[in-house]
Amino acid sequence: THTHSHTNTHTGCTPAMSHKLHFIRLVRSHAGNTDKVRHALRQLGLTKLQKVVIHKNTPDVNGLLRTAIHCVEVKPLKFDPQSTANQPHAITLSNGKRVFLGDDGVLRGASEEEFLRG
What we know:
Strand order of the largest sheet: 4-7-6-5
Distance between the termini: 40 Å
Largest sheet: 4 strands, mixed
Helix content: 10-25%
Number of helices: 3
Order of helices and strands: EHEHEEEEEH
């Protein structure tokens, strides 16, 4: 069998890389794409241009990303638990802790373990 490795042209990141979480941003409109691509974007929660979502690096998510890779920017989510600098995207974890996600793909104010728990 032949396998394809789709590299995201924005970051050089392939969906199946070894990090645990993906930082995903919709950078191209779903308009003009096939129903399959639009469905994949909806499944990922990408409904508006420039919307950012975080998903676990799983085979199911990676399959959706491969379908719509030309419409998204994918980065490994990084963590900076020491910093609480205000960033564009504030997230409140289930424990009430407020963390901030920057456009650089860095989650500030929580470690990876805290984020996965919360």
